[in-house]
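Lab notes, practical 5.
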Amino acid sequence: MLDGFLPFVHQVPYRLHLPPLPGGAVPLLVALHGKGDSLDRFEAEALEAVPDEWGLLVPSAPLPRDSRTGREGGIGHSWYLYDGDTPEFRASLGRAETFLVDLVTRVRMRAWDHMVEGRPVDPKRMALLGFSQGAYLAGVTAMRHSGLFGAAVLAGGRLKSEMLEPWFGEAKGLRILGIHGRDDRSVGADPCRRSIEAASAAGLPAEFREMDGGHEFTPAMRAAAKEWLASTFG
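Output from the prediction step:
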C-alpha cells in the first residue's frame, strides 16, 4: 500500500493498494466517498468492492468544509460545493473533476515508479466508483473522460444526464452501473433510475439495480459492485 499527498488548498491524502509482484499490469478502481465522509472510513467499504487482482485508489475529497453551506470545519471532506444547479455549483464540480483526473494520472505514474511495492496499473483498464456525492462526481468524470475510464459504479447518487447529454455520443464504450437503496430518504431512487435509463436510451451499456437499504453502501451493494466490476474488462 502506498500513502501519498497531492496539493490542493491543503495536503490531500490518498491510499493506493496494488496486488503484489509477480504479475502483469492490473485494472485500477478509483473509489470516491460521500459528502462529509473520510478516506479512513470509506476505505474499508471500498476494499470489499474491489475485485481480486485489481488495484484500488481511495482519495480524500479536497474540501475541508460542509459542501451544502460552505462552512469551514464541517465533518469530514467534500468534493464540491452544492447550492442548487447554479453556475457556482457547476464551476465547483468542474474543479473537482479536474482535481480527480490529475490525481489519477499522477498516482498511475507513481505506481509505475514503485513497481517494487506492487504491480503497475493498466491505463486501459480503469474504473470509477462513487457513493452519494462521490457518485455524482464519478458519473460526470467518467462520462467526460471516457478515454480514461471504462466503467463507473454510482451508488446512492444520480448520473447528471441533463449536464452530460453532449458526451453521450462520445462515451459509447463506457459501462455504467447504478446501485440504490429502495428505502433511501436522502437521494430518491426514481430520479437515479431515470438518469441511468437516459444513458441506456442513448446507447450506453448502463443498468440500474435497486437493492435493500437506505442511503448507504451496504455489504450486498459492495458485493454486487465487485461482481459487476470483475466482468467489465473480461
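Observations recorded by the TA: The chain has a mean pLDDT of 86. The two ends are 25 Å apart (CA to CA).
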